[in-house]
Specification:
Blueprint lengths: L4 E2 L19 H13 L2 E5 L4 E3 L2 E3 L1 E2 L3 E8 L2 E8 L9 H12 L6 E4 L3 E5 L6 H7 L4 H20 L14 E4 L2 E4 L13 H11 L4 H8 L4 H13 L3 H11 L3
Antiparallel strand pairs: 1-2, 2-6, 3-4, 5-6, 6-7, 7-9, 8-9, 10-11
Helix pairs in contact: 4-5, 5-6, 5-7, 7-8
Length: 251
């Protein structure tokens, strides 16, 4: 990981290009730097599992890129709106992350502005990578899965649909203290929630990923699971959720 660059020196460093990416504009970059100072970001740094232009960063997506940063003396993740993003502000994503935080889901939101979201640094493998390489005890594996399903259920209960939990690759991360849901850029409170159903389907019913779950869950009865998911979809109550857990042997 590169050293943290003090915020006043960022635009003259290799980190600076990401403050205003992919189309760099000096005036816009300076305005964004003022925003970063205004929300208390003290420095930025390269480092992470993803890369742009050969530089390692924490994350990249259609809406933003994520860099390491320091905020109030704490190492954080700083999501920066891309100049070609399909939205004019990051404030809605911040609002939805705050809602998720209220039910104990997602990285903790620390600060936000039109161009930035400052949040808790979460480090660890993505769930898919972790599951395929896991050699621990079965109960520990099942505990992680149950924890993720409980988080999906919490999102369902507050009417917040993540929108991408059918994609195992980059939306669940396993840290040293458990697993977490990340990346709320596609989240919405305006559509029907399907966090539990999307998570279960992607884990246990997709041809691509379900083989990684079999060593830990044995022979899940797919018809019984599908029926439990149908009941939950019709009536997303606590009782319906327990039915889904029962079909997975996680009650």
């Amino acid at each position: 990981m590169s050293d943290h660059v003090p915020i006043d020196d960022v635009l003259d460093s290799e980190v600076g290009v990401f403050v205003c990416w992919p189309k760099y504009d000096e005036g816009q970059a300076e305005a964004r730097l003022t925003q970063l100072k205004g929300i208390g970001v003290e420095s930025l740094s390269l480092g992470g599992r993803h890369a742009i232009l050969g530089s390692p960063i924490l994350g990249k997506g259609h809406v933003g890129v994520v860099l390491r940063g320091m905020w109030n003396g704490r190492e954080v993740a700083v999501k920066i709106r891309r100049t070609d993003a399909d939205r004019d502000s990051m404030e809605e994503e911040a609002r939805l992350l705050r809602l998720a935080n209220e039910v104990g889901v997602g990285p903790r939101l620390y600060a936000s502005s039109a161009e930035f979201v400052v949040m808790q640094m979460l480090e660890g493998p993505y769930f898919g990578e972790w599951a395929r390489g896991c050699s621990g005890e079965a109960e520990g594996f099942r505990d992680v899965v149950r924890g993720l399903l409980d988080k999906a259920r919490s999102l369902d209960r507050v009417g917040l649909d993540h929108g991408e939990l059918n994609r195992m690759r980059r939306h669940f991360i396993v840290t040293g203290v458990g697993a977490e849901v990340i990346d709320f850029e596609s989240a919405s409170t305006a559509r029907r929630v399907r966090n539990v159903t999307a998570t279960v389907q992607s884990m246990f019913l997709s041809r691509r990923f379900s083989p990684a779950m079999r060593p830990w869950f044995g022979g899940v009865d797919e018809e019984a699971l599908l029926e439990a998911l149908r009941r939950y979809k019709r009536d997303p109550s606590d009782e319906g959720y327990w039915g889904v857990l029962g079909a997975l042997g996680l009650e």
